[in-house]
Hints:
The chain is of the alpha/beta class. The protein has one domain (about 1-180): FAD/NAD(P)-binding domain (3-Layer(bba) Sandwich), CATH 3.50.50. It has five helices and 13 strands. The chain has helices spanning about 10-25, 70-85, 115-125, 165-170, 175-185, and strands spanning about 1-5, 30-35, 45-50, 55-60, 65, 90, 105, 125-130, 135-140, 140-145, 155, 155-160, 170. A four-stranded parallel β-sheet has the order 8-2-1-12, covered by helices on one side. It has a four-stranded mixed β-sheet with strand order 11-10-9-13, with no helix packed on it. Helix 1 runs parallel beside helix 3 (about 115-125). The longest helix has 16 residues, at about 70-85.
Amino acid sequence: MARVLIVGAGPTGSLCAALLRRELPQLPLRIVLWDKARGAGGRMTTSRSPHNPRCTADLGAQYITLRPAYAEKHQSFYEELLAHGVLKPLTAPVEGMVVEEGSHNFVTPQGISSIVEHYLIESGADVLYEHHVTQIYLRGGKWEVCKKTGSPEQFDIVVLTIPVPQILQLQGDIVNSKSSFNKYLNTE
């Protein structure tokens, strides 16, 4: 069974995991997501009060917009999230909001991170938090991934969905990724 590591449990990482599971159901994949934070969301995080869990604040996006240019290509994602109650149409006026003709705005009643959580559940991935990746090496045709604490682990495939500044801080063979990729493919 191929082991796939997705680094980053934000919107891109969670959707990547869900799409891998959805589009490649016949492949025996063990999908693992690591995130350096204490929970899912990345740039779509919902913060909850430790004193009152009903008191929340969305950090990052407060609403989602479906623009006409993306409607045809991404309509199925919006329909899925609406059907599962993750999204609801934004019906209240927002002062200063400019609405493009044909656009539709949505809110997330359970917080913006509920989109990420929906796709993580759909993916069936093993999600591990407080796993801060520091180094990535190519060893014997597998990727050895080191984190701040704990032993390194090996994966067949590594997908980085973290912001570029964090990718640039990584050490190891990933620093010279073109050379590493060519070695992996035996094309040098």
